[in-house]
Specification:
Helix content is about 0%, strand content about 55%. It has strands at about 1-5, 10, 15-20, 20-25, 35-45, 50-55, 60-70, 85, 90. The N and C termini lie close together (about 5 Å).
Length: about 90
């Protein structure tokens, strides 16, 4: 499975974790050179606190398009550190 934006691979794995329809990519599968931590955060009642990331591809910045739960609650521990993406990123 790949996460791409305009033919640039942002993450690639054969072991995604699917939660609530979102495909989460393991941290080692993410090409971190495209990611910059954002100031946006979100708290999910059952997963915990999420951090957001901007992505820069060929000079274009996508704001708050990826998120990760660095320390999720026990119910969501399988996605700890995994990245998911907004629909502007193609997942296939």
């Amino acid at each position: 499975m790949k996460a791409t934006y305009k033919n640039t691979i942002l993450a690639e794995t054969d072991k995604p974790v699917v939660v609530e329809g979102n495909k989460y990519f393991p941290p080692e599968s993410v090409k971190k050179e495209y990611f910059k931590k954002s100031s946006k955060t979100y708290t999910c009642p059952w997963k915990g606190d999420a951090e957001y990331y901007d992505i820069e591809v060929n000079g274009e910045i996508l704001k708050d398009v990826a998120w990760v739960y660095p320390n999720p609650k026990d119910e969501a521990k399988e996605i700890a550190g995994h990245f998911a993406f907004e629909p502007s990123v193609t997942i296939e």
